[in-house]
Amino acid sequence: MREVCLNFINEKRASENKAALLLWFDASDCTESQAAADFHTNSPHGHFGKCGETAQNTCPGWPAGYNFDSQKKALLSCLQEMWDERSAGWFSEDGHYINMSNSAYTKVTCGFHLENGKLWVNQNYR
Questions:
Q1: Which of 70, 75, 83, 80 is nearest to 112 (CA)?
Q2: What is the pLDDT of residues 74-120, one digit of tens each?
Q3: DSSP 8-state class, residue 67
Q4: CA–CA separation, 29 vs 54, rounded Å?
Q5: Average pLDDT of 35-47?
Q6: How far is 53 from 88, CA to CA, in rounded Å?
Q7: Distances, alpha carbon 45 to alpha carbons 7, 11, 62, 94, 120, in Å
């Protein structure tokens, strides 16, 4: 799933001639824990900064089944919705699209937590 997340973001960045992000491997375990903590407190971005990230996007509680295909579908749906904010006029400094497309970031990792059919995904950028 981490590769699915990274590949999606990089495909979208490539469509705007922006450099691909590297997988921020060192923060992967921390981001997984962070996603679980946010899920349990039901607070998107509730633990922002704990992994040393500069920016964060969160898919909070997306309906997903317990197999890879349903989780992948939920993840891609969330990421696409975030990317589409660019055409909806969401150009604030803290927008999801801004984080995904920002040329200043060189790394990203995605952390996942699945419980009760709900998928929580944090994408941490640096």
A1: 75
A2: 999 999 999 998 866 555 545 899 999 999 999 999 999 999 999 99
A3: S
A4: 17
A5: 95
A6: 26
A7: 23, 25, 15, 12, 11
